[in-house]
Amino acid sequence: MKQVKRSKDHLTKWIIRALAIFFFLFSLYKIGIIDQRILQAFSRAEHLVKGMFPPTLDEPIDIAGAAIESLQVAVMGTFWGIIFSIALAIFAAKNLSPHISISYLVKGFAAFVRAVPALIWALLFIIAVGLGPTPGILALAINSIGMLLKVYAEAIEEIDHGVIDAMRATGATKFQVIMQGILPSIMVIFVSWSVFRFDINLRYATVLGVVGAGGIGWELIRASRVMAYDQVMGVTLVIFGMILIAELITRYLQKRMDIVNLRASQ
Questions:
Q1: Hey, CA dihedral for 72, 78, 79, 84, is it positive or negative?
Q2: Which DSSP category does 177 fall into?
Q3: Ramachandran region of residue 33, left (φ > 0), alpha (ψ -120 to 50) or beta?
Q4: Measured between alpha carbons, how far is 148 from 8 in angstroms, rounded to an integer?
Q5: Which of 175, 200, 4 is nearest to 90 (CA)?
Q6: Where in the chain are the domains?
Q7: Count of Cβ atoms closer than 10 Å to residue 21 Cβ
Q8: Span 117-150, pLDDT tens digits
Q9: What is the pTM assigned to this prediction?
Q10: Fold for the domain defined by 62-264
């Protein structure tokens, strides 16, 4: 009986593998990977790579200004995302929400804005307010709310309810409970996730310029349209440097917060 079962399991595994391989090859064919164009792409890629070196910056001052604008978009988008996330998290957390239905409603809103990519939000805001950094800031703020609202609310819900009850028993108002009881308890989590979100937003900000939301992404798309591949490479290196510096700063801040959290737990 065991031998028959092992034979069936073995046959089932082989059928699953065969179907997976067939689906993989069929997908390659349908999306055009197995195509003459792919074979010819190597020569075009060689021409592209040769055109990228040495990398240059035709207008370094403009590139620097665009990089600063991308940084400003990321900072402002993160700032407004944090502000609105804190305000909404109070209504999303079950232990603070006036009613459970309000909690589910706010969390549903967060899930919706989180499901829509930042690029789509940027396109919608460009239609609403026009080109420039403003739609980029709004897009990053909305996209940040989807993520930060969720983690802030979960952090508030994990607070020991005895702390809230004790403050209420002393006659503290809801505002005092939030400012003196809840925020100090979640401050480490709050700072850690906010810094992480800024790191994400800086990456997004460099891309949103491609659709006209300001920043260095616009310089990248401008250079690519005129086939100035050496400038494309130069702008790409500037973007890489920005993200690398931001990564180092966020890692340092997160380590500092881990040290503070460890000392607080002791």
A1: positive
A2: I
A3: alpha
A4: 48
A5: 175
A6: 2-45, 62-264
A7: 10
A8: 888 888 888 888 887 888 888 999 999 998 999 8
A9: 0.75
A10: MetI-like fold (1.10.3720)
